[in-house]
Amino acid sequence: MRKIRILYTIPNFDTAGSGKALLNIALSLDNDLFEPHILCLNNKGAFFKVVEQSGVPVHVFNYLAKERPLFKMIMDSWKISRKLKEIKPDIIHSFNYSSNYTEALAARFAGIKWIFTKKNMSWGGSSRNSWKLRSFLAKKIIVQNKDMEQQFYPNSNKMELIPRGVVLEKFKASTPTKEIKEQMRTAEEQRVLICVANFVPVKGIEVLIDTFDKIHNQHPEWVLWLVGDDKNDYGELLKERVKSLDLPNKIIFSGKQLNITPFLDHAEIFILPTLSKGEGSPVALLEAMANQKVVIGSKVSGIKDQLENYPLHLFTPKDSLELAGKLSHFMKMNKAELNKLGEKFIELVQGNYTIEIEVKRHENFYKSLL
C-alpha cells in the first residue's frame, strides 16, 4: 500500500521554533502509513542543517507567489503548481506564519489538498482579507488554542483544535552543568529566574524587566536570565533598558541558543510575559514544564489554555505590579518547595502536551482528509 505523502511547507528555518515543531511531527509520524517531505524557500538558518540531516526529503524553491499584480500572481501560482505536482503529495500542510494565500491557490491548481496551522492571533487590520481568503482556500484548518476557535472560526466545519506537544526526553531535568552559570556570569549560590522566548515585541519582555527591577532588592540572591536571539532592534532596546536600570549584573542575556535545556536545568521559575495579542500554543512554556519548572504566564490566548487549571500562575498582561506579587510569592520558597510544585507541571505536560499526543491527533486529521 502506498504511504500517505505529506508535504510540510515553511518559509525558512531562520527562527527554529516553528521549524522544530514541524520536524518533531514529521519525524514522529507512523513510518508504515506516512511519508513526510519538507519544502522551504531557502537553505538559510542553523537549524536547516539539522533538518537536512534528519533523513526527511527536503525541497528548496520559491513556492510563494507575490499577491500583486493579480494576473502575474495567477500565472506564477500556476507555475508553482507544476513543481508541487512533481513532488506528488497527497496533502500539503503549511506552517507559514503569515496570511499569504498564494500557496493555497497553487495547491488548488495542482489538485492537491491544502491545509494550514493557524499559528498566531493575527486576523484584523490590513491582513484581514488575506486571512479570510487563506481560510476559504484551505481544505481544513488546524488551530492551536480555544480563542482561535471562538474568534476566527466560530461556525466553521473546517477547523480542528490541535495544541502543541513537546518531546519530553529532550527537556527532562538533569544535573546542572557548571559551565552554563559561568557562561551566564552567575555565581554558584545565585538562584535563577528564566524567560526563553523569540525576542519580538509581542513577548512583553520589557514588562518582566520592569517587574524584576521592582523586586530584586527584596530578593538579592536571585538573577534573571533572558534566553533568546537578541540580535535585533527589540533585543537592543531591552539591553538599553537593563543598562538604564543599572542591572547588567542581575539581568543576563544568553544570545541565541539551539539547546535551551541546560539553561532550564539551572532555573527554578519560568516566566512568559506575552502581551494581550496572545500566543498560538507557546511551546517554550511546555518545555519549561517538562523540565519541572514552576511557570508563570500572562493571561492571554494560548497561555490561558495551558494554565487553565492553575489560575494563580496567570497574571494580567502588562501588569508588572501583579506579576511582582506572584513572583515574590514563589521566590520566597526554597528549592525543595519549588521542585515539588514543579512536579505538577510535569504531570500536566505528560497528560496533555506530549509530542505523541500531538502527532496522533495529526495522523487522525490526515486520515480524515483522505
Structure commentary:
With 370 residues, this protein is α/β, with parallel strands linked by helices. The chain has two domains: 4-165 and 354-369, Rossmann fold (3-Layer(aba) Sandwich), CATH 3.40.50.2000; 168-352, Rossmann fold (3-Layer(aba) Sandwich), CATH 3.40.50.2000. It is built from 16 helices and 13 strands. A seven-stranded parallel β-sheet has the order 3-2-1-4-5-6-7, with helices on both faces. The longest helix has 18 residues, at 70-87. It is elongated. The mean pLDDT is 96. Pfam families: Glyco_transf_4 (PF13439), Glycos_transf_1 (PF00534). One of its GO terms (molecular function) is glycosyltransferase activity.
Strand-and-helix sequence, N→C?
EHEHEHEHEHEHEHHEHEHEHEHEHEHHH
Radius of gyration: 21 Å
Count of domain modules = 2
Helix proportion range:
40-55%
Q: Whole-Å distance between the termini?
A: 14 Å
CATH superfamily of the largest domain: Glycogen Phosphorylase B
Number of helices: 16
CATH architecture annotation name of the largest domain: 3-Layer(aba) Sandwich
Biggest beta-sheet profile: 7 strands, parallel
Enzyme class: transferase
Protein name: Glycosyltransferase
Domain Glycosyltransferase subfamily 4-like N-terminal: 17-169
GO molecular function: glycosyltransferase activity
